[in-house]
Design goal:
- The structure is a single chain.
- This protein is α+β, with helices and mostly antiparallel strands.
- The protein has ten helices and 14 strands.
- The strands form five sheets. Strands 9-12-11-10 form a four-stranded mixed sheet, with helices on one face. A three-stranded antiparallel sheet has the order 1-2-3, covered by helices on one side.
- A hairpin with a 3-residue loop joins strand 11 and strand 12.
- Helix 6 packs across helix 7.
């Protein structure tokens, strides 16, 4: 019996270590492999249900009724620690063409996963960090929103700092370009972000993505967060709502956004309804 036990321990060691991270609203757990390959061991929050069945409680609701119905579906998610989010984002924002890299939300640059930096370290401006698309200043640091992967993105440290807690809107201010990959602006200015004293305008390719992340946040945390046209961060507000609606329609859901939604579903057990069903947007914000 002792020999068999030793053999079993050896096999477990050879197969690789597994570390269980995060907390859940129930007693189930997800195993996070050291290779950052996420494997759901147990079912949480409908994770085994087909996508259509996930929304089977949605019938003909509109407006606030639809907000509440969606909230009831997506609110029972797994809550990660902030430190766990490093590995999680390395998986959700992974470059489809290079599994060693992440794609940075604002610049679109493919960046090595290993070059991560906390905060805005001036010596690591070319590294990436964790961007809260809905700024932390709009909610308590203890809130579960801080580690919600649906609005956490890999971002260039310097551009993240420039964006700060500004709202999203169309700007007439200066353009931001990626100094790590080019020396001068080229003729296609829409590949870069733009900012002024009050707002931040992302590159065209992710405008809809950002809008749908904010729509998700406004529903998932509808009792504390709100989308408006003239937001005050201290009041839990973000915007500009009219512009976000425009971006949602002009930049439809793409394959990368869908893949990211699936990977977040694997990890924290809930989905972004506005990626799965873009028509919900106009049923809530008319």
């Amino acid at each position: 019996m002792k020999k068999i036990y030793v053999i079993l321990l050896t096999l477990v060691f050879l197969c690789g270590c597994e570390i269980t991270l995060g907390s859940t609203t129930d007693n189930s757990s997800t195993t996070y492999h050291s290779t950052t390959s996420y494997t759901t061991k147990t079912s949480i929050n409908n994770t085994t249900k087909p996508k259509l069945e996930y929304y089977n409680s949605i019938t003909n609701q509109t407006g606030q009724d639809l907000v509440v119905a969606l909230y009831n579906i997506i609110s029972n998610n797994r809550v990660l620690s902030y430190n766990d989010c490093w590995d999680a984002i390395s998986y959700t924002d992974e470059d489809p063409n290079n599994s060693n890299n992440v794609l940075l939300i604002y610049t679109g640059r493919s960046q090595a996963k290993t070059t991560k930096a906390s905060g805005t370290d001036s010596s690591k401006q070319s590294y990436w960090n964790r961007e809260h698309v809905w700024p932390q200043s709009a909610f308590s640091s203890a809130s579960n929103a801080k580690t919600d992967l649906h609005h956490l993105r890999a971002s260039d440290v310097s551009v993240n700092s420039t964006r700060g807690n500004k709202m999203f809107d169309e700007c007439s201010g200066s353009y931001i370009f990626d100094s790590n990959t080019c020396d001068n602006l080229d003729s296609n200015l829409n590949t870069y972000c733009r900012t002024d004293s009050v707002a931040f305008e992302p590159r065209d390719e992710v405008k809809g993505d950002i809008a749908r992340m904010l729509f998700y946040m406004a529903v998932r945390y509808y009792n504390v967060l709100e989308l408006v046209n003239n937001p005050v961060a201290a009041n839990g507000e973000m915007g500009c709502l009219d512009t976000l609606l425009k971006w949602h329609n002009s930049d439809p859901v793409d394959a990368y956004e869908e893949r990211r939604n699936e990977r977040i579903y694997e990890i924290q057990g809930n989905r972004n309804p506005f990626i799965d069903n873009p028509s919900y947007v106009n049923l809530i914000w008319k």
